[in-house]
Amino acid sequence: MDDAAKTTGDSSSSTGYNPHFPRMMKRWILTSLFSLSIFLLSETSPSEGHGYIVRSIPADRTVVTRAPNTVQVWFSEGLEPKFSKIEVFNQRGEQVDPGDGGTDEQNNAKLVVSLPSSLPQGAYLVKLRPVFTSDGHAVDDTLVFWIGERVGDFNESGSGNTAVALEAIWRILLTLSLSVLYSTIFMYAMVLRPAWGSAQWALPPRIMRRLSLLLWSALLISILVNGLALIQITMKLFDASLSNVLQDDSLNIVLQGTNFGDVWQIRLVLLVAMLGIQVIAAQQSRNRPGSTHILWLVNGVLALFALGSMSLISHASGSPILPLVSVFMDFIHLTAVGSWIGGLIVIALILRPAFAPLNPDQRGRALLSLLRRFSPLALIWVSLIIVTGIYAVSINMYRVNDFADSTYGLTLLAKLILMVPLLFLGMVHFVVVSPERSARLANWLQAHQRFTQLPQTLRVEAIFAIAVIIAAATLPATPPPQPPNARGEVEAMSKLATAGAYDVTVTVSPGVIGANSYDVRVAQNGEAANVDAVTLRFSYPERGLYTAPLTLESSEPGLWVGAGGDITQAAEWDVLIDIDMDQTNTQRAALRWEFAEEVKDASTRSPGIVNWFSVLLVAAVISAWTVPPAYRYGKSLDWTPQTLAIGAGSLVFTLAVTVGGAVLFSDTSRRLEEQRNPIPDAINPIFADQNSLVEGQTIYENRCVICHGSDGYGRRPAALNLSRPILPFSSTLADQGDDVLFRLLTRGIVGRHLYGTDLSEDERWHLINFIRHLE
After folding, report:
1. Which whole-number Å values give the CA distances from 7 to 2, 306, 356, 357, in the listed order?
2. Measured in whole angstroms, how far is the alpha carbon of residue 257 from the centre of its chain?
3. CATH 2.60.40.1930: which residues of the chain?
4. Which of 51, 218, 335, 599 could, after both became Cys, cross-link 132 (CB 3.0–4.6 A)?
5. How far apart (Å, rounded) are the C-alpha atoms in residues 78 and 84?
C-alpha cells in the first residue's frame, strides 16, 4: 500500500464510514436476499429431470397390439450404468420383466429391459431411475403403455417430485466458497498488491492477516461442503438415509463408479494440495515473508481448477449441442462470475482493517487506487459473463415462454434481475475512478459527496453479488426446460417387398445398431395370409457378415414377430425374409436397408444460428481483451532472423508431431476395425432375392444334390464314396464368409471333386446364395 495505506490514524471520524447510511436500506437488502434464497430453494424442489427422455418404445401412454419384446428408453445425456434402473410392473404392482434391465451396452444414453412375449392385455408401468453421468442427478420417472386396449387411466406417468433443495444448498455454499478462495488470491496478486504494495511491504501485515483468514476460511469450508456434496449425492443415488450411507460402502461405490465421483476426487486432491501449500506458506511467513508470494500464486492456479471443476458436473457437460464447447463456455462464465463477485466480497471484507489507521483523505486516495485496479478487470469479467450467458441461454432455452413456464427460467430471470443493480453500482464505481470517461456524472457525484459513501456502496454491491452467486449456483441444481419434441414416439421403420403372390411389410424398430424388434406382416389380396412359417435373416455382404436365421413367432393372423441384436454396424444391410407356404414351397422377399448408428433425436441437436452467433460473440470478446496486450507484448520481443528461425522451426515441429500423431491414431483405429471385421477377399455382388435363389437352386440340383441332398445334410449315397465326409451346411457355413465359399467353389477341396470350376462367377454367387438359404 502507498503512504496513505500505511499511515496510522483515528478511524472514528472517517468519511469512509458514513454513520447516517440508511439502516432500513441494509435491512431491506438482507431481507430480500433471504427471501430470494427461500424462493429459489422452494422452486428447485421438483426434480423434473436434468437430462430428459427423448423417446421410448413403446411411447408413453400408447396402446400396442402385442407385448413388446423390449422396452427401450433414450435419454438426452449419458447414464451411469451401475445406478440407472428400468423395471416394468403390471397394474397390480407385480414386476413382469426378468430383471435384466439397465443401460444398453452399446449406448449408455439408453435404458433397455426385456419382456416375455406372453404378457396379457392390460396396463403396464415402466419405472425408471436414470442417473445422469454429467452431474450425478438421479431422477424417478414413470411411463405407461397398454397392451390390447386402453383400460382406465394412470396419473403416475411423468417425473417424480424428489426434493433437491439439499443439492442446491451445497452447490451454493461450494460455489461461493470456491469463488472467495480463488478471488482472495487473485485480488492479492492482481489488485491489492499492485495498488497498495510497496518495496518495503508486499502488503501491510493487517491486510495480509485478513486475506489469510479469508483464504483459510474459504478453503476449510470448501473441503467441508465438498464432503457434504458426496454424502447428499450418495443418499440420492441409493435412496438411503444418512446413517446407512455412513455405515456401508455406498460412498466408495459412488467415488469409484460415477463421473461425479471422479470429479469429486479431483477437486478434493486440489483442495488438499492447497491446504498443504498454505501450511507451508504460513510457516514461511514467519521466517521468510517474501517467499510466500510464489506459494500463493501456485494456490491461485489450483483454486482456479477447483472452481472450474464445477463445470464438469453442470448442465454444460451433458449439453446436446457442442458439449466440449459448452463446458469451456461454462468454465469461462463460472470463472468470470467467481472473479468479479468474489472480488467484491473480498473488497467488502478487507476495507475495515485496511482503512482503520488512515485519515479520511488517505482513505479516499487508497480506495481510488484500489478501484482503478479493480474496475477495468471487472469490465472484462462482466463482458465475458454477458456473452457466455447468451451462449448458455441459447443451448438451454427453446422457447421464449420457457422463462416463465419453467423453474430454470424463473431462476435465470431472478439472476438477471439481480444483475441490474450490481451492474449499476459497478458502473458508478467505474465512472468515479475514471472521471475523464464521464466528467459530468463524476462531477455530480463529487458535488453531492457521493464519493464518501463508496465503501458502503461496495458493501451493498457485495450483498447483491452474493445473491447472484445464490441464483447462479442454484441453476445447475434446477432442471432446464425440455425441448418440445421430448418424449416423442419413435417412428418405426417399415418397408414393403413381395414374395410371389404375397405382399410383405417389414418393420424394424427402432432400426438402429443394437436391440430391435421385428414385425413381418404377410398379406394376399389385402387380407392376412395363412402361411406355415416366416424366417428372418440379415446379411452385410461388404463385410461377409450373416446373422443366424431367426424363426419368427406368429402373433396374430398374418403377423409374425421377433427381436434380436443382429445389427452390429451402421451400414446398408440385406434383409432376407423366407416365407414357407408349405413344406415344399418357400418364397423369398428381400430388400436393402440402411441402418443408422443411433436414433436421430434431440440428444444430438445440431447447432443453430443463435448458437453459432453466441460462439462468435464470445470469441470476439475474448479477442478484444487478449489481442491488444498480446500485440504489445509481441512488439517487445526480439524479432531477429535467428529468433524467427527458431520459432518457425518449433512451430513446424509441433505441427508435424500433432498431425503425425493424429494420422497414426487414425491408422491404428482403422487397422483395429479391419481386424475385428476384415474386408473379404471377394464380395458377393448378387442380391440374394427370389430370382437369385431360383438360379442357385437350378445349379445346385444339377451339380450338388447328388452328394449334399436337397436339404444340404450330405447323407446321399454318392457322398459315402468320398475320402472326406460331407458335413451339413448348417454346421459348416456359420463361420465361413462368402469369399471362403467362393474360393472353395473355384478350387475345390482335396478328396472331393472340383464341382464349380466350370461355372461363371455369377453362377457361383447364385449358388452361394442358395446354399446360404439351406443353413
Report:
1. 9, 38, 10, 6
2. 16
3. 491-594
4. 51
5. 10
User: How many Å apart are CA 356 and CA 10, to the nearest integer?
Assistant: 7
Q: Are 113 and 292 in contact (CB under 8 A)?
A: no
Predicted TM-score of the model (pTM): 0.64
CB 383 within 8 A of CB 419: no
| Set of cell numbers at residue 151 | 383400460
The CA-based dihedral angle spanning residues 588, 593, 598, 600, taken in that order and rounded to the nearest 10 degrees = -130
- Report the DSSP pairing between strands 559-567 and 550-551: unpaired
pLDDT of 602 > 50? The answer is: no
Contacts of 377 (CB under 8 A, 6+ apart): 190, 191, 339, 343
Cell, residue 710: 436337397
Radius of gyration of the chain (CA): 36
Start and end residues for every CATH 2.60.40.1220 domain found in the chain: 53-159
User: pLDDT tier at 224 (50, 70, 90 boundaries)?
Assistant: very high
Report which of 33, 141, 129, 45 is spatially closest to residue 83, judged by C-alpha positions.
129
All cell numbers assigned to 3:
503512504
Q: Which CATH class is domain 53-159?
A: mainly beta
Cβ(54)–Cβ(598) below 8 Å: no
Distance CA 680, CA 686 (A): 15
Mean pLDDT, residues 753-774 = 77
Using a 10 angstrom Cβ sphere, with 0-12 exposed, 13-18 middle and 19 or more buried, the burial of residue 241 is exposed
Total residues found in the chain within this entry: 775
pLDDT (tens digit per residue) in 342-396: 888 888 888 888 888 888 777 777 877 888 888 888 888 888 888 888 888 887 7
Torsion angle in degrees (nearest 10) through CA of 705, 708, 709, 714? 170
Each residue of 697-734: b (16+ CB within 10 Å) or e?
A: bebbeebbeebbbeebbbeeeebeeeeeebebbeeebe
- CA-based nearest residue to 479, from 407, 431, 416, 543: 407
Q: How many CB atoms lie within 10 A of CB 109?
A: 23
622: nearest Cα among 419, 342, 336: 336
**Residue of 45, 236, 56, 227 lying closest to 132 (CA atoms):** 236
pLDDT at position 306 is 93
Domain ranges in the chain with CATH number 1.10.760.10: 690-773
**φ, ψ dihedrals at 712, nearest 5°:** 80, 15
| pLDDT at position 275 over 90 | yes
The count of other CB atoms within 10 Å of the CB of residue 661 is 10
Please give the single-letter amino acid code of residue 241: S
Is residue 480 within 8 Å of residue 410, measured between CB atoms? no
Residue with the three cell numbers 478471488: 183
CATH number 2.60.40.1930 given to 491-594: yes
Sign of the C-alpha dihedral computed for residues 11, 14, 16 and 20 taken in this order: positive
